[in-house]
Amino acid sequence: MEKRALPSPVLFLALAFSLPLLFAVLRTRAEDGTLRLLLYGLQAAGPSLAALAAAARGGELVPFLARQLRARGALAACLIPFAAALAAMAAARGLSCALTGEAFAVRGVTPAQGLVILWALAAEELGWRGYLHPLLRSSMGRPALAPLAVGLIWGLWHYHYVLFDGMRVPLVWFFLGCVAESCLYGYFLDRSGGNLLSAMSYHCSWNLFVHVFAIQPADNGGDPLPYVILTVLELLAACLVLAAGRPRGAPPSVYSPFTEN
């Protein structure tokens, strides 16, 4: 009997979840610091590597890559998510300071943090918002639910960081944040016509400002309040996005990961 090839979405999810585990295990056994950093980068890039493999498996690698980035509207696709991330982080830190009496301050990032932040431009979004999000939007009966599905999967995907790096954030709030942020990613993607620059900009900006404003407990002496406030703000924003939907009478903005609209 001829063996059937794995459907590309199944292959994508299998690789997206297994590759980071493989690289994390290898990282624990590596003694060279440069090699550990490289393996950490590959661990984070599991979704993008999985998307490339799934697209290649389906013979769609070239059209998949061709549709991701475009010059038209690129400035807005980058600046609007950047401004949204900046506003959310500043508001979360400001509210936290108002509640605790702490002085509002910003901090710098280390060279290692800067490298990880810049790597966020390419590490995940080719997989989550470049491949999985549009694939679900083009195949689900209710495309508006695609960001929620991606958010649930994306939140579960972080299991390897929990196991090997001991994430110092409230995990329930982190998971809720993944779902909420996925809705915002979907909003930016829709507004940019599926331009992946919007997702890349938001992910990189989020990772930058979460350090600059010391939102995570690991950056502020263990206080979870700024992170909880940020998640609440993201949940409110996601609810507004979902409630607003598309304008009445407007055609649904459904795009596939392989073909231009």
| Annotation field: number of helices | 12
What is the CA-based Rg, rounded?
19 Å
Taken from the alpha-carbon principal axes, the silhouette is: globular
Structural class by secondary-structure content: mainly alpha
Low-confidence stretches: 247-252
Q: What characterizes the major β-sheet?
A: none
- As a percent range, the share of strand residues is under 5%
**Tally of strands:** 0
**Through-space gap between termini:** 39 Å
Q: Roughly how much helix do the residues carry, as a percent range?
A: over 70%
Mean of pLDDT: 88
The secondary-structure element order is: HHHHHHHHHHHH
Structure write-up:
The protein has 261 residues and is mostly helical. Helices cover 70% and strands 0% of the residues. It contains twelve helices and no strands. The longest helix has 27 residues, at 74-100.
